[in-house]
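Quick check before the chapter quiz. The format below is the same one you will see on the exam, so make sure you can read both the input and the output lines.
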Amino acid sequence: MTRIDFHVHVLTPGYEQTLAPAPRPPQSISGYKRFMERYEIDAAVLSMGDALQARTASAARTGNEELADVVRAEPHRFGALAIVPFTAQDPEVAITEIAYALDTLALDGVALFSNHAGTYLGDPAWEPVLAELNRRGAYAFVHPAVPANGLVFPQYPRWLFEYPFDTTRALAHLIYSGALERYPQLRLQFAHLGGSSLFLAHRLASLAEREPEKATRAPKGAMEYLRRQYFDTGLSNNTVALASTLKATALDHIVFGSDWPYLAEPAGSDPSDDFDELDPAVRVKIDVENAAALVPRLLHGR
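Here is the expected output.
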């Protein structure tokens, strides 16, 4: 096996029809399969494009059932992450869909966002949802969203810097709200090598020394909570970003991600050709072997 992709956005036909019209790149399963062939990707964990725009629980249900159909058709090639229709006003709707997606549809985990309509992961409104995911020892992919207060510089695309900054906000809040202390069985994968959080890891950890009264819910220290998380290389397939990551967490917590269809596709057959200089044993851990911690069936089969 050459490579397993943990950061892929697709749109299934029925779910796409539930979305408000907007400019968005093509995200068909067939398009991604062509990408897989070009870049020697053997398997992938799919998440729905524009999943944060699921307007209703029924829209989420449509998308989740279509993702399950994709997995059933090619179970050794695809995993999938459920859309979670979270609202701060009624988190039980999210819990109901999580149960259906994981128990009935047998999806591999869930897709969450740094903030859902301004409610960040770690907010008290998330408590019942995180408790349920923790009870299950669930795998959750955390993708950034537009910041709750909007774009400071709307002339620049949101992915340029706001997305990685919002991941950092969410991760810091998960730490200092105590959520990662209360729910240690969560297996969280943060997009783009954690945004800027691992580069800023020691700065984030310094709260315990500088203002200890604000860090009481994170008794093990920010560095320990960061070390436990998983991180994908989507839009961060370079050795500069990887070096910061490896200072804060172990190699076995890093998985390959392409961020299709949003990456600038390099020439040749390697989507992360800057990793060519890595030791081959390191490369195979990132590209393939570390999948065992999140979706082991893609590595070992059902």
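If your answer matched, good. The two ends are 16 Å apart (CA to CA).
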